[in-house]
Each structure stands twice: as structure tokens, then as C-alpha cells.
Amino acid sequence: MERTHILFDLDGTLTDPMVGITKSVQHALSSYGIQEPDLRALCPFIGPPLKESFMKYYGFSQEKAQEAIGRYREYFADKGIFENRVYEGIPQMLDRLKDRGCRLFVATSKPEAFAVRILKHFRLDRYFDQVYGASMDERLVRKGDVIAYALESAGIGDVSKTVMVGDREHDVLGARENGMDCIGVLFGYGSRQELSDAGALKIAETVEDLGRILLEDR
Question: Last residue of some domain: 65, 82, 99?
Fold first, then answer.
């Protein structure tokens, strides 16, 4: 099927934010006397909304989790935001998609202001028609809601030629909430089982695989 509009997740899909996100979580936890020296142990925070993760993995109440987001941003806003790297092959893939006439968007649960800064820093902003993300107050943060916001803002009424690309179940489930297919990627932070169970249409092991799938769908 021809795909004319493609929505991309950011963390774990376009860039690998492992160091910046986990160090920011580490900073937040330390303010509550929780020491976690192993950054890899904090990788489950990559992708889902932060509030949800603080509650799920550390048993924080809603109020404490909201406060922890502020502690997280103390580190992330100046340091963690750029402790990040673009996955190899992403710019070339985006170039090919643009050359084929695709309209590209970012839909992320990261605050929109941070997502815009990251994309500009890595010179990826030039590929995207628009960037859609969460609000700083966390009122808009669920992936399904962010995708709905993106579709409405971009004027995409017919989603039959639109697809979401992401590395976690939240991307797949959020796309399905909006009547869209989702292509899962394994070079991020979700497993094949997670993506398959959530209902991903196809799963790409590498950036090269992803490009092939998206271009074949043209």
C-alpha cells in the first residue's frame, strides 16, 4: 500500500537517547535517596511517559511522580538533552522518503519543545513537515493522544495511507487507537515480542530494513 504520510517516534527510533535519559532518571532518583549506578537498568524509561514509568518501576504516587519529572528535567534540559546520537542510516533513509514525495512528521511523548531542540541540534528538522510532542505540563503525553493531535494539526483525515514508526508498544497501541498501522523497529528499546503482541504490522530489525519496508509500501 502506498504510504503518503509517515509519523516517526523520536527516542529509540530516530535517535538513541540512552545516556541522556538514564542519567536524567538517575539524577531524579538520587534526590529521593535512591541510588541506581547501572544506567542500563533505567532503559525501560526510554519511550513511555515518564510519570507512568516512575509509578510503575519505583512505586511513586501520582504526585511524587509528577514532582520527579521536575527533578528529571533539572538534568535533562541542559545536559541530558544532547547526550544522544542519531542512528546510523537515518538521514539517508529520510532523504529517500522525501525524494519519493512522502510527508514526514515526528510524534513523540517527549515534550515538544525538547523534541524540536534535539532535531535541530542533529540537523534532522529539515526532513519533517512538523514535530508533535507532549505538553510540558504532561496533560498531553499518552502516545495515542499525541498521534491524534498530530493527525488533527496536520489535517490528515484519511489515515489509510498513513503509518506510524516506533520501537515500543506504546507506538503500536497509540497508532491502533487512531485507526493506523504501525511498523515496529528492533534497533530501539522494545523487543520483538513486545511489538508483536501489541499488533505491529511489520517489524524492522535494522534501519536498512525499515527503509526497505517504507519504500516498498510506496
Answer: 82
Give per-residue burial for 141-179: e unless 16+ CB within 10 Å, then b. bbbebbbbbbbeebebeebeebbbbbbbbbbbbbbbebe
Pair (152, 209) in one structural domain: yes
111: left (phi over 0), alpha (psi -120 to 50) or beta: beta
- pLDDT band of residue 167 (cuts 50, 70, 90) is very high
Residue 189: strand, helix, or coil: coil
Q: What is the mean pLDDT of residues 168-174?
A: 97
Report whether pLDDT(128) > 90. Answer: yes
Catalytic residue among 9, 16, 167, 181: 9
Residue 144 sits in the same domain as residue 66: no
- For residue 153, the enclosing domain spans 5-16+85-216
Query: Any catalytic annotation for residue 9?
Result: yes
Domain finish residue from 50, 82, 114: 82
Statement to judge: residues 78 and 99 lie in one domain: no
Q: Are residues 63 and 171 in the same domain?
A: no
pLDDT digits (tens, 9 = 90+) for 181-197: 999 999 999 999 999 99
What is the rounded average pLDDT of the residues 33-55?
Answer: 96
